Amino acid sequence: MPELETLEDLLVEQLRDLYSAENQISKALPKMAKAASHPKLRQAFERHLKETLTQRDRLAKIADMLGVKPTGHVCAAAKGLIEEASEFLSDSKKSPEEIRDAGLIANGNRVEHYEIAGYGTAVALAEKLGLDKAVKLLQQTLAEEKATDEKLTALSEEVNDEAAALSVGAEEEEE
C-alpha cells in the first residue's frame, strides 16, 4: 500500500479496496446462485450480481473523477469472506438444501456487512473532502447494500424455518 499522506489518499485507498471487493464478489455470486436451491435466494444472488457490476462501475467513475485508477489493490477481507463461503459450499455438498441455503444467506450477510462498513467510510471521507458527486454515487451504493442485507435477512426467516423443520423432524424420528 502506498503511503497515505492526505484524506484524499485514504479515500482512494478505500475506493480501490471496494473496487477489488466488488470484482471478487462479482465472480463469487454466480457460484452462490448456482448452489442455492431456494428460488428466491437464487434470484436474490442473481439480482445482486447485476447491482454489483453497476457498483463496480460507479467506483471506476469516482476514481476517474479523482484522476486515479481503481485497480492495483487486492481486498484481503473480501478474499477471506469469499474463501469462507467457498469452504462452506465444499463442506455442505451433502447437507440438506435448506441447511445449505441458510448457510449461503449467512455468508452473503457477512459480505454485505463488510461492504456497508466500507461504503459508509467512503461516504464520510468524500463528504469531508466536499466531493458531492462522489458522495451521491457512494450513497446510492450504500443504500443498495443495505437493501440487499435487509432482503437476505428477511429471506432467512423463511429459509431458516424450513431448515428448522428438518431439525424438528429429526428429533421426532429419534424418539
Verbal overview:
The protein is mainly alpha-helical and 175 residues long. The chain has a single domain (7-174), classed as Ferritin, core subunit, four-helix bundle (Ferritin, Up-down Bundle), CATH 1.20.1260. Helix content is 85%, strand content 0%. The longest helix has 43 residues, at 132-174. The termini are far apart.
Core attributes:
single chain, 175 residues, mainly alpha, Ferritin, elongated
What's the gyration radius in Å? 18 Å
Strand content: under 5%
What summary fits the major beta sheet?
none
> Which structural class fits the helix and strand makeup?
mainly alpha
The name of the CATH topology is Ferritin
In short:
The protein is mainly alpha-helical and 175 residues long.
Record the SSE blueprint.
Elements: H1 7-35, H2 39-66, H3 76-91, H4 97-128, H5 132-174
Helix pairs in contact: 1-2, 1-3, 1-4, 2-5, 3-4, 4-5
